[in-house]
Amino acid sequence: MHRLDRIEGAARLPYSLKILLENLLRNEDGRLVTPDHVRALSGWRPTADPTTEVAFTPARVLMQDFTGVPCVVDLVAMRDAITILGGDTSRINPQVPTELVIDHSVVADVVARPDAFARNAELEFERNQERYQLLRWAQQAFTDVSVVPPDTGICHQVNLEHLARVVFTRAGPNGPEAYPDTLVGTDSHTPMVNGLGVLGWGVGGIEAEAAMLGQPLSMLVPQVLGLRLTGELPPGTTATDLVLTIAELLRRTGVVGKFVDLYGPGVASVPLANRATIGNMSPEYGATCAIFPIDTVTLDYLRLTGRPEHRIRLVEAYAKEQGLWHEPDHEPDYSQTLALDLGSVEPSIAGPTRPQDRIPLRVAPHAIAALLSGCTQTEALETGPNGVGPDGAGLDEAGGESFPASDPIAIDHDRTRDRPTPSCACPGSHDWPHHPVELTLGGERVSIDNGDVVIAAITSCTNTSNPSVMIAAGLLAKKAVERGLARKPWVKTSLAPGSRVVTDYYERAGLTPYLDALGFNLVGYGCTTCIGNSGPLLPAVSAAVTEGDLTVCAVLSGNRNFEGRIHAECRMNFLASPPLVVAYALTGSLHADLLNDPLGTGSDGNPVFLRDIWPSSEEITAVVDDCVRAEMFTRGYADVFAGDERWRGLLTPETDTFAWDPTSTYVRNPPYFEGMGREPEPLRDVTGARVLLKLGDSVTTDHISPAGAIAVDSPAGVYLREHGVARGSFNSYGSRRGNHEVMIRGTFANTRLRNQLAPGTEGGWTRDFTRGGAVATIFDAATSYAAAGTPLVVLAGAEYGSGSSRDWAAKGTALLGVRAVVAESFERIHRSNLIGMGVLPLQLPDGVSIDSLGLTGEECIDITGVTALQDTIPATVHVRAGEVELDARLRIDTPGEAEYYRHGGILRYVLRQLIDGEQA
Length: 920
What we know:
Elements: H1 15-27, H2 35-42, E1 53-56, E2 60-64, H3 65-84, E3 98-101, H4 116-141, E4 145-148, H5 155-163, E5 167-172, E6 175-180, E7 182-185, E8 199-202, H6 205-212, E9 217-220, E10 224-230, H7 239-253, E11 259-263, H8 272-280, H9 282-285, E12 289-291, H10 296-304, H11 309-321, E13 336-341, E14 348-350, E15 358-360, H12 364-372, H13 377-380, E16 394-395, E17 401-402, E18 437-441, E19 444-448, E20 453-458, H14 461-464, H15 467-482, E21 492-495, H16 500-509, H17 512-517, H18 539-548, E22 552-556, E23 570-575, H19 578-587, E24 600-601, E25 607-608, H20 610-613, H21 617-627, H22 630-636, H23 645-648, E26 686-694, H24 701-704, H25 715-722, H26 740-746, E27 765-768, E28 774-777, H27 778-788, E29 792-795, H28 807-815, E30 818-823, H29 828-836, E31 840-843, E32 861-864, E33 876-881, E34 884-890, H30 895-902, H31 906-919
Parallel strand pairs: 2-3, 2-7, 3-4, 7-8, 10-11, 10-13, 11-12, 20-21, 20-22, 22-23, 26-29, 29-30, 30-31
Antiparallel strand pairs: 1-9, 5-6, 14-15, 16-17, 18-19, 24-25, 26-32, 27-28, 31-34, 32-33, 33-34
Helix pairs in contact: 1-2, 3-6, 7-8, 10-11, 15-19, 15-21, 16-21, 25-26, 26-28, 28-29, 30-31
């Protein structure tokens, strides 16, 4: 054990930095990790801007299949490339345990039927057999690679419930070693495992590949915010309400790129599942991670999930010996501290396009009407007389956060009637546009309108890993059915748990029949609606939405609700707890006032209110205690890597290199190593570039990276049809991430993307100046520019690349020929991924925007000073766009990132390092 108490200054460090310090101590080799790194971290100054680079060596790598398939494809391509360069294929092999969970490929095509799960699983295998063969091959061709087959669970929930060690053990040079479990994952919600005290965060696939191959990840020692928790959640509130409150608070505070440590007396009252929910949504508030320390709650959860007793004793002993055990009265040094009284949390939803835009449930109908009538989010949440601002919070005298008193659904409901009537600060009324469209569903004549709910989905690891909120949803469904309520016929309902354990405790509690009765039949174990795998709307509903050009809504228990993510026909998407998802399925509309209006009329002819069927905390706890058992976890995960007959029956030749199928439309050899030599080419400035896209603020990786359904007339759809793929077999972009030809055609093709260079369009359109500025698809224009030898640039606003750690947002950008992105600011992961693909991230000076410079996107652009990167990292490079000239900040922040760029990207860098190591 590398003892932290021997390092001066270690005791004052936040929990997260103690783990990072141990990582440096254990991996110090005098080359990649030096004594200077250790001294720099132990002498960490809380309020200093991050300037010190250290090398983080994760104990393992976690992947899901959407991001895992391209990782495997890249490793296979590296094996081919190292052979061409005269190297040994065995050098291309994971050096740390790598765990891949197939969870992103199931689609909620079939719903509200007893056979929904079986049918969706069958469709999943039919669509993805080529991808699954690749992953089965990788499991036997690469050492230390474990694959959890499809229809098992969501990677983060499987990680939390089974894969996470908390304390790792291995044989060292001086005997057995114990050290903290750490990881990086190819999904931005990897920090879910932070709830167990495990340090980990999401990275792009290209960074994960480097970690798999034994390359430490270069990072700046971050600032750490301490969030002090006090009190307890009031009755009627859920973990979802808590995490939406925290997301709002921390996004407003500004924690992008920072670590968040949760501490204080309130930590002990936060169940492990709630901790995981908070950690899961770290990317929603911009933090690298949000971690809880190890305590008795951690140990109790390890027992509940069937971990062996000797492992639990090791975790306790190690944490206490290393100073990683939570001491409620101990306050480490933090860069900044905030306080949150858990008792102030109130029922909430978030939306319609950002997870940090929390809407208290008591004002939800007002906010929805305001949004539909054209108000901004800020205006919609103004409540005038009671002084609550757009975020529902204000600063207390001590500078911490104070929130308005809660209105728990189960108690003191009448107090909501005494609240001032919400009033909006915007001009005009909230007489939202009514455009009812009539349709026939199940023989019944109904109508849908703006603001109605067409998708209600219990989905995503964020909440399905939490027995309390899942049991609450089941109990609410039971009471609703017993009172004679039913879901509205236009609502597409689905249940997609994160592991089979959920259905086990539902069965034991007798809740499954009631969920089924409301249409929440099991559709699969995996990410469905939360990543856009929501499947089609009911045909008649889809036709009505198109006919009326309606703004309809999705309500889901997920973590993301960005434009175009959930479903192309849902313009407004709201995050909510699982029981509220059930409630909105009953009302069928976001206009419903769940706290005051009846959900419907019961079988006895009387109105039924939410307060009548909302389960009490005592009811939920009783069912959880009785029905969630350790043997469910041990039994459910006993053969987690085995898979069913379809998985075991896949043909996987035992070869060191993969046999590429030239006819495959799922898996193709990528072009990243074409023409690559043993030495990198000299760097060049960017001259004569044209603008491919001019974008506004908050363009997410969902806008950039191909995701969701493939439109038949899109460049990707045309490609598939040309290769003999029928429309019904298109599958999704995510499932075809192993085919760069499909993915490059879908980059920047999100239906909600607004390219200001092509005004009046929405989606993947731009102007092609090789053809006089004619409007063309982004892919076709990029192809024309490539033929002309013209480099490309993207212009963007603030928070460019926020959202999921999608490696294809960077890969597609690079393959389109983009050499640089000029933006007001970048989100952490995407900036790093751009560098990893050889694309320059350039940041405008403070207070300067693309619009303030007067740039239209029609200018020719030169970027000079790039060649200085050959030997150093210049602070700025010079940008000339038409008549405009300025120095832009070069956002290559560490020497490691500079090396990646000099080599043309991280993949080429790692390959050359492996060849050099072989020669040494």
